[in-house]
Amino acid sequence: MMSDMDHNGHIALSSASGRWVVLTTVLGSGMALLDGTVVNVALPRLGRDLGADMAGLQWTVNAYTLTLAGLILLGGSLGDRYGRRRVFLIGVAWFAAASALCGLARNIEVLVAARALQGVGGALLTPGSLAIIQASFARADRPRAVGAWSGFGGVAAAVGPLLGGWLVGSVGWRWVFWINVPIAALVIATAVRHVPETRDASAAGRFDVLGAVVAALALAALTYGLIETGRGLIAVAAGLALMAAFAALEVRRSREGGRVGALVPVQVFRSRVFTSVNVVTLIMYAAMGVVFFLLVLQLQVSAGFSPIAAGSSMLPVTLLMLLLSAPAGELAKRIGPRLPMTVGILLAAAGFVVMSRIGPGSSYLADVLPGVVLFGLGIACAVAPLTATVLAAVEDRHAGVASGVNNAVARSGGLLAVAAVPPLVGLTGAAYASASGFTAGFHQAMLICAVMMAIAALIAFLAIRGDVLGEPEPERHLHCDVDAPPLEHRDTA
């Protein structure tokens, strides 16, 4: 591996070591991403088997996202401090153990608790996978490496419904969780052998455990309040108060320093680009979370698709992410990320509008495929530039923090939207048992998601300026009041 490194200890993407690092991080983060979508296909079957209502299905999705979003910042900080590979490996093993517990659940309450444990493992492995790429590769290779990571990770997320449909229809929904165990074993084997260890040498002080707890409680209260409409106003108010307390705590700890470091160092938000891209991430992933949750349900409940047919409907997204994500990252490096992100998000919004036509009697070619293709083109164009930009906007030593913040924002957006949008459009109780009632709510939800994506595109276009992905300019000094590059020493002897 050492022969593949430059003088700064960075790996070239074209080297054998570089390919192994990408493969390992893609497998690890892809396992978590796949689980976030594969479960959706199994929801109708497991709901019937475990006697769950619509709220139970929402909690099956959100219990995982809740602990993932609430603890992912801590996971990024742990990786920066104790080694990104080490924490990544712990997360993979934890995730596998929790997945086995999910497969053994005999009621919805146990399943929800096991899903929450899965999220803890995801919080440890997800930020580490991206931070490993950011810290391991030479700067010139990072946009392409992130593009490859985004593309193959997106493939995992898109393959999830297909794999879930096949598993549900053949061996049962419990294998949706058990499949993670052999994947985790492969990830651990390749990481131990091929991934270099990296850490932030300047990290000091104790961890902000209080901040992590407050953030997780805030998200839990907001999620409960949004799902339990009519009796959740107090929980929503408590969640907002806890969120404000979390922000105040992080500002104070960032300013004071001391033995307890801030979970979110506020100095990273001094970058307008970093802040803006995270706002775009919040809105974009909120809309995507609702679509991934409701689309496969709509195809089964209203359009009469089998589980495997509903899962197969997302295959074009898989192909488009595989083919276009890496080129999108390279294009963003050449022309800047604003245009690819804006166009991509708008294409996804158009896809949601087209999806709103899906209902009873819909055919795949006429009613499903056009919207799925637009959605796939959009996220393939937008995700790699977005991810590369949010990392390039901060110093390398904050790679874990930046990755953690962006992942937390993305997961929080999906978590809160999946909690809020279905009740808002009338999808409560036993709604998934009624084709007509579910279709009406689904149509409204898709239009809401399209509007959200349009807002995200507008923010991206207005706020992201300049090519933050290009090579930094060489340091310049003034010599005799003349602005020039650094003076070169010439041997005149």
Task: Summarize, please.
The protein has 493 residues and is mainly alpha-helical.
Features of this protein?
disordered C terminus; mainly alpha; 74% helix; 493 residues
What does it look like?
The chain has 493 residues and is mostly helical. Helices cover 74% and strands 1% of the residues. The chain is built from 16 helices and two strands. Helix 1 (16-50) runs antiparallel to helix 2 (54-82), helix 1 (16-50) runs antiparallel to helix 7 (180-194) and helix 3 (84-104) runs antiparallel to helix 4. It is globular, with a radius of gyration of 22 Å. The model is unreliable at 473-493 (pLDDT under 50).
Total of helices: 16
> What integer value in Å does the Rg equal?
22 Å
Query: Quaternary status of these chains?
Result: single chain
What is the beta-strand fraction? under 5%
Poorly predicted spans: 473-493
The 3D shape can be described as globular
Class from helix and strand fractions: mainly alpha
Major β-sheet strand ordering:
1-2
Distance between the termini: 40 Å
